[in-house]
Amino acid sequence: MILIASGTRDASSFDASLVLAAQVEALGHAVALDARSLPEGVGRATLFQAARWLTDPDDLAPDAILVIGAGRVEDAVLADLRTLNLHAGVPVRAFGRFADRQAQIQARARLSYALGAEPEVTDLGRADPNPLDPAADVPVLAVAGPGRPAVAGRTRVAVALGAGELSDPGLLAALAVLAHQPAIDLAIWADDAPAGALPAPLWRPSDLDPLTLAGRTDILVLLPDAEAVSAPLSLRLAAAAGALLAGGGLVVDATPDARFAASGAPVLRGPAEAAAIAPFLTTTLLPNRETIRARIKADPWLAAHGGDGLGLPPAPSRAALPPAPSPAPPPAQRDILFLPTNGVGLGHAQRLSRIAGALTRPDRAVFAAFPSCLPMIEAAGFPALPLVSKSPVHVTPFANDLLNARRLARHAPEGGTLVFDGGYVFPSIQRTILEQRMRGVWVRRGLWQPHHLTGDMAEREAVFDRILIPAEAFDELNDRYSFGPRIHPIGPVVQEGVVEDRASVRARLAAATGVVADRIVLSMLGSGVVTDRLAHLQLIAALIEGRPGWQHLVLVWPGSQVDPALYGWRQTQVVASRDALSLAAAADVVVSAAGYNSVHELLYHGIPAIFVPQVAAVMDDQDRRSRAAAERGLAERVEPRELLRLERLVLAMAGARGDEIRAALAAHAFPARGQAEAARLIAEVADG
Amino acid sequence: MAGTHSRSIAWLVDPALQGGTSAAVAAELQALDGWPAQRRVHEMRTRMGGGRPPAPVLADALDRLGLPLRPAPGTVAADVVILHNPALLKFEAALPFRIVARDLFVVLHENPTRPGGAEGFDLDHALMLLERFSFTGRRWLAPISARNRASLGAVPPGWRVTAEDWFNICDFPLLPACAHPADRRGRHSRPGPEKFPSLATLDLLFPPTASANVLLGADPLMKAAEERQHWQLHPFRGLPLERYFQMIDFQVHFTAPTWAESFGRALAEGIAAGKVVISDPETAAGFAGGVIGVRPDEVDAVIAAHVADPARYVAQVARGQQALRAFSAGAFRDRFARLCDPRPGLERAA
Fold it and tell me: Domain check: are A341 and A474 in the same one?
């Protein structure tokens, strides 16, 4: 274990620790950061990056210590170092910039008093007079992390920008030109939130490990002038450039002051005019790429910055590790991780389980899911890793996602494929894909409300290799939110057939409820988390109560909370089931919310329904979806406030109106189901 | 008296320096009261002193002796110029005066190198400054102890090393040893981090089995929350020394292993107060048997042996107080006379 300590407790120094930690880890060492060194008030991105290395003081047993910022070591840091109780002979290397020799002598002495061991102190100003980042208080190295190879015939180009540069229309136009070059996959590295649509995926270099970013890049073009980058960002760009050079990539310095080229690193001087970058790449650089790479590989700068200067003990060899004690044969290779978010209902999990079931080899699928989804997923025959749900009692709003990120880092199949279904791409998902070098697929149903379109789509999509858009049944609902070769519309993902036939379900219901009914009304209006539908349920219950031969079933998910008021009716029963479709097919009238799965399953299975759309900021646009079905005569729709109309429709749907809709549904040509196509597209990604 | 050849003596002092240096200068001025030479004390403010008020021990001595603290003139001229502790020049880029002297003595105080050989401070820089800003017949480096002398290493060109140590004067009142010592331990020093060994070593030195563990000047431990229920931690100057010595029978003095006392004034104070003093063997060697030198894991046994045998305790204190006589004011005056003798042949044999 290599302990990395920073001389000061500020966010910038801690950020430098994270960069060095990534580099030392890439050199094959286990890395630790003392948990006490985490500065107060650091942001979410910093916590996500640091979590893998933060170690409680009692668990610190370093084989070597690296101290950065040694020119200004705070007393609190020395106090923490004092508690380490080092074994004899543990090497300590300190790096800093010193005003004079006395400052260096003093820094060494202070560290030695705290550690009880003599550190070897390096004055960075002398050891590396022209580093890639002149202000860095840490060695600026050229260390490559594990990367992901490019798709054959494609070149991944990243353009790094400084603060505010995304608002330059000329630059955006130049990026658009670059994005449209054949055989180039462009990415933009910028910390700014884009004001509008970007021509390429956006990565925030301050939020992500520079080695990981570099591992997904073949050519990095550095544009920002010195004033446009903060000190931490400057170091991260330098580390990314170093990683790229060490990994066989190319770095183009197109900064106005040519400061990266001035370091002596084998970077190419590029045009300072953004508009000239595309022709420079396509006519100058790419045709000569292999020659340039060969020269970079032979450049002594690389060897001088490869990490030997850290003076670390040899990294433990993987081959030297003892063999695993268990002689058990390896489990089946489950290399496709399906991860549904937990929305208001279980729609995301249902959709993914259907797609996973459509894989040619479903035994490749494994799930990670929130507890509410687990029984349904396991019932579908897939193993599932539990994730931690958000809770108001957590210390931060994202504590669960931080824990999930660590859990996924341990269990996600490295180099496999992560398939996500949801609207908001959690940091844990993005980081799992990046850090486990996975491929990413986003199953993203549409029909978003206008306020969901916040303009950061380029950032949300960046981590995914492919984005599958399950279609709505009605074409006017298929809005396009982004474009490009990664976007793949697929047919609606809808269950094939019912699990249990109508007669069997009705017989079991009669046995279970003690009511033999010839008219069944099924309500599936949601869990009540987002919108309270108790009034609607009570109204239907009152309507049914006393009508001979009628029965009202309220469908809830197993484990849901049920309002006790629903238990006061003789002809209304609460049914907990995961097989909503079989129940719906057995009913005469269905009153349902208008979520994607409910609407499509009812329509595709020819079941007449009254849709009561849920209207909430977090939901998809259920109003448009239900309206489209009703306007075609394929369903009835009532506004949530139209209670008397709902009452009338329930009675009508039990009679002739229900027959009319059933006939219309039977006659309607719906788009073909999309799960098989989705499974094929996912397998294609997974197979590279 | 050989020293009468020196008709004028000037001290260059940063009065803001707290701790051993100011105490040593104060004791030296007191010891040389009445010395047959014109004596002047010049103020030399340095960045290391930080412009703090004069150390009380030095201010009191100057008051008592009627010696004004004069600002250093453009040229400090005297037969003998004495500068205590060159480490105080480590942050200076230049001196605001010039020194003209027959003999310039630079009294080392701090060890130029630490155990293991790492530099303790940038002595070369300090000496270079003095060379640039002085016109002298002879430039002397004056170690204050054998250990301080050993840490000097090679003598810089143009400098000589005094044959005898410019020791700290330990003219403390000698108190008798107690007749029935108990396992009551303590340590005191200024609160520098170098003054403390690791927590694991401190646990060996001040165990729960002792009836008292009094740690004076324990500010670094208090800041780092390195505390034990069986320790009494007091900040620097948080107890009068007299009170502190009433609370202990054994002074146990170990430092960070990467630092060493150059003289060990705190140890001398313990001996004078009638205590058995225990330290590491290298530090103990400077006190001619007056300090018991052992490893930290041997401290318990040493204390147990002396508690069980009060006569042995008394004998050890007597041995220590006898050793202190070598550091008396009278001994210093004799040595000073020899050191300031203008005749050649006083430097250390090469």
Answer: yes
